[in-house]
């Protein structure tokens, strides 16, 4: 009969993929139990009712992550998952970097310091003091981790991303504790959403392949121009819109909307070309599908929050805009998930006989 | 397979298997001894590395033996594993030798300056 400790360790091992457990579980349990008894040779009964230590549980969790998110030399399915999560991390870092650069350009623009550029009369300065100005510039800290990840310095990228996240966290915590009301779900979710690339960077392990830098380096200025264009259009239209109709306009160009538009656009492009490349690994469909749920939640949660401040005339239009954005995301997300699932299934079937690319089996 | 730098746990696990096949817990103990207690492998870490070494053909199953109602698997080094470990040990020894020579040349000046 198995002990409580063994049952608990087997529960921890359930974090591992089933084919991995099939190959290694019994051996891992045998080694773990032997180590546990050896650590307390005079208290076998105490050992049997114990729990796996945090360090042991963490080592299994790290193993589960490495097995599921593979790098160079991994089996095709974990490799695709690993690549997709690495793309999610890069997209998240790219968005932060674009946001930082747009913030700098916007700030300079609102102070009419761009020679030869039309003054941005509709815009309001992002900051009113030197300290606030310096604080807003901390967003630029997202550029180094992005550029490091793109150029293959994965370890540096992880450390720099954590450093870049610290001001975001401080700002969020101040926002949550400084306001008159309680902490809102929107504030909490924005913080989690900002942390998304940090979590996804766990896939940049030692075996992570190098990223093709050129497309990602081009994406940065293109993204800045696109976001600035959207902001400029809203600011140009804003003076001509009734105050009652302002909220729908702002919701069309807020950050969740930009995420929705960017993600839906990327999904449509990929879905339209994917059928021409049936043998290609479904890295992008999977990465985009993984991005859909967090962006969808962001859209819904910020929309609901925005409606609290909407006049009665705004509500119908605002809800319609939000519903269209959500519907577009759900439909394209479902199609991406289907494509990714079908290709992953094909990969498993194709990978089974391939030598050196098989699931772990002990000969 | 792309060339990867050998990690310290992988180096010690291969070293632990040079003289005899060992089971999982035996490897953990041997690695702790070899590293003077500095490297204490968690079971999750051990099997993550072991899985990679088996997949790369550096380690293979030697035998299974019953022990207290469980089957214990013993692993052994393959010929390829021995070659790779030899290359890695030579590389590390050369690195250490280069550092030792520089330190020896540098030490008198530093000591004299103090």
TrEMBL record, chain A:
Write out the transmembrane intervals. 88-109, 129-147, 159-176, 188-204, 216-236, 256-273, 285-309, 315-339
- Superkingdom: Bacteria
The record's keywords, sorted A to Z, are:
Membrane, Transmembrane, Transmembrane helix
- What is the designated name of this protein? Uncharacterized protein
TrEMBL record, chain B:
Q: Which UniProt keywords are listed? A: DNA-binding
SUPFAM superfamilies from the entry?
A: Winged helix' DNA-binding domain
Q: Does the keyword DNA-binding apply?
A: yes
Q: Does the keyword Zinc apply?
A: no
Under Pfam families, the record lists: PadR
* Molecular function as annotated in GO: DNA binding
Highest taxon of the source? Bacteria
- Domain named Transcription regulator PadR N-terminal: which ranges? 13-85
> What is this protein's record name?
DNA-binding PadR family transcriptional regulator
Gene source species: Actinoplanes digitatis
């Amino acid at each position: 009969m198995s002990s409580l400790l063994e049952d608990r360790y087997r529960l921890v091992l359930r974090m591992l993929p089933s084919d991995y457990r099939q190959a290694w579980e019994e051996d891992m349990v045998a080694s773990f139990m032997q180590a546990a008894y050896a650590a307390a040779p005079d208290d076998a009964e105490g050992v049997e009712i114990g729990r796996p230590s945090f360090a042991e549980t963490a080592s299994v969790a790290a193993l589960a992550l490495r097995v599921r998110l593979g790098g160079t030399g991994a089996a095709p399915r974990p490799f695709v998952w690993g690549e997709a999560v690495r793309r999610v991390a890069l997209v998240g870092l790219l968005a932060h970097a674009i946001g930082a650069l747009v913030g700098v350009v916007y700030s300079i623009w609102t102070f009419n310091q761009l020679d030869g550029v039309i003054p941005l009369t509709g815009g309001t300065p992002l900051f009113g003091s030197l300290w606030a100005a310096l604080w807003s510039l901390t967003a630029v800290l997202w550029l180094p981790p992005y550029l490091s990840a793109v150029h293959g310095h994965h370890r540096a990228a992880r450390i720099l991303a954590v450093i870049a996240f610290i001001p975001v966290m401080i700002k969020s915590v101040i926002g949550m504790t400084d306001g008159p009301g309680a902490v809102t779900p929107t504030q909490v979710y924005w913080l989690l959403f900002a942390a998304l690339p940090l979590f996804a960077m766990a896939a940049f392990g030692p075996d992570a392949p190098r990223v093709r830098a050129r497309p990602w380096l081009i994406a940065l200025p293109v993204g800045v121009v696109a976001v600035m264009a959207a902001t400029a259009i809203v600011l140009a239209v804003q003076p001509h819109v009734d105050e009652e109709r302002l909220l729908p306009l702002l919701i069309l160009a807020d950050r969740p909307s930009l995420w929705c538009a960017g993600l839906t656009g990327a999904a449509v492009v990929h879905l339209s070309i994917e059928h021409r490349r049936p043998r290609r690994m479904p890295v992008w469909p999977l990465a985009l599908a993984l991005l859909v749920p967090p962006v969808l939640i962001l859209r819904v949660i910020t929309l609901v929050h925005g409606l609290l401040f909407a006049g009665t005339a705004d509500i119908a239009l605002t809800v319609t805009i939000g519903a269209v954005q959500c519907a577009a995301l759900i439909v394209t997300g479902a199609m991406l998930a289907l494509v990714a699932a079908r290709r992953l299934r094909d990969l498993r079937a194709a990978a089974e006989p391939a030598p050196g690319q098989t699931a772990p089996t002990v000969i | 397979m792309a060339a990867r730098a050998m990690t310290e746990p992988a180096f010690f696990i291969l070293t632990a298997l040079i003289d005899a096949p060992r089971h999982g817990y035996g490897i953990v103990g041997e690695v702790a001894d070899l590293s003077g207690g500095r490297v204490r492998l968690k079971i999750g870490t051990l099997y993550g590395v072991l899985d990679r070494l088996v997949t790369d053909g550096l380690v293979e199953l030697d035998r299974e033996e019953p022990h207290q109602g469980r089957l214990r698997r013993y692993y052994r080094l393959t010929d390829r594993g021995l070659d790779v470990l030899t290359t890695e040990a030579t590389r590390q020894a050369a690195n250490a030798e280069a550092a030792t020579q520089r330190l020896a040349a540098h030490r008198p000046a530093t000591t004299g300056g103090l």
